[in-house]
Amino acid sequence: MLGYTITQWLFGILSFLAIMFALMVVFSRNPVNSVLYLVLTFFCIAGHYLLMNAQFLAIVHIVVYAGAIMVLFLFVIMLMNLNEEGEPQRSWMTKLIAGVAGGMLLFVLVGTLKGTEQLGLATYGSSQIGTVKNLGMVLFRDFLFPFEIASVLLLAAMVGAIMIGKKEIK
Amino acid sequence: MINGISINFYLLLSTVLFIIGAVGVMARRNSIIIFMCIELMLNAVNLLLVSFSTLHNDAAGQVFVFFIMAVAAAEVAVGLAILSMIYRNVKTIDTDVLSNLKN
Question: What is the torsional sign of CA A11, A130, B21, B8?
Fold first, then answer.
C-alpha cells in the first residue's frame, strides 16, 4: 500500500487520532466531553504500546487510566455538576499567549530533535521484552523493593484521600 | 527502527502530546481540566519511555512506566480529594478565584 507497511499505516492513524483527541481535550468547552476525549486519547496511546509489542503495559494502561482514573474524574465532575454554562474561560489574550508559548516550546524541541537523525539506525526485530512473562521476571527480580514501596505509596494515598475527603476531622 | 518506524516519529509524537498538555495547563481555568492536561503530559513521557525501552531492548524502561502509572494513580486520588474538598468549602474550582496565596 503506497510503499508503507501495515505497521506504519497503523502508526500514522493512531498518532493522528491521538493528537486530534488531545486537542479536543484542551478545546472542548464541556468538562465531561474533555474527559471522554481524554479516554479516547488513552486508547490511542494503548494502541501505540501494542504496536511496540508492550502488551502488558497496553492492558495496564487501559485498566488503570481508562478504567480507574478517568472514572474517578467523571465522578468528581458529576459531583460538582460542572457544565458548559458555568465553565470559566480565560481572556483571548491569555489564550493567545499560551498558544504562542506552546508553539515556541514546540519550535525549540523540534529544532533540538532534528539533530538526532542517527538514533533510529539500529534495527531490532519484534522484541519480546514487553510480554507479561518477561516484565514479571524483571519486576520481581530487579525491581522488587521499588514494587513494595509502590504498594506502601498506594496505601498512603488511599488513607490520605479518605482523610482529606472526610466531612470533618475530629 | 521499531517495527519499521523510526524512533524520531515517536519523539515527535511525544513532543506534540506534551505541548498540547502544557498549552492546556496554561490556557484553561478549570482545575479539573488542568489536572487532565497534566495526565496527558505524563502519558507523553510514558510513551517516550516505552519507545526507547523497545529501541534498546531493555525492560527497565517499561518497569519505570509501570511505576509512573502507580504514582499517577496515587496522585489523582489525592488531588481529586483535595479538589472536591475545595469545592465543598469555596463552591468553585476556578483557578482565578482560588488565589488566596497571592495576598
Answer: negative
Q: Do A35 and B12 touch (CB under 8 A)?
A: no
Longest dimension (CA), chain A: 69
pLDDT in tens, A107-138: 998 888 877 665 553 444 556 777 888 888 88
Q: Which of B24, B53, B16, B28 is nearest to A127 (CA)?
A: B53
For the record, the C-alpha cell of A22 comes out as: 488531545
Q: Do A69 and B72 touch (CB under 8 A)?
A: yes
- Cell numbers that stand for A6 in this block: 501495515
Contacts of A139 in chain B (CB under 8 A): 63, 66
| Predicted structure pTM score | 0.89
| ipTM value | 0.91
Question: From the list A31, A64, A121, which residue is nearest B73 (CB)?
Answer: A64
- Give, in order, the Cα–Cα distances in Å from B83 to each of A27, A80, A167, B33: 22, 10, 13, 12
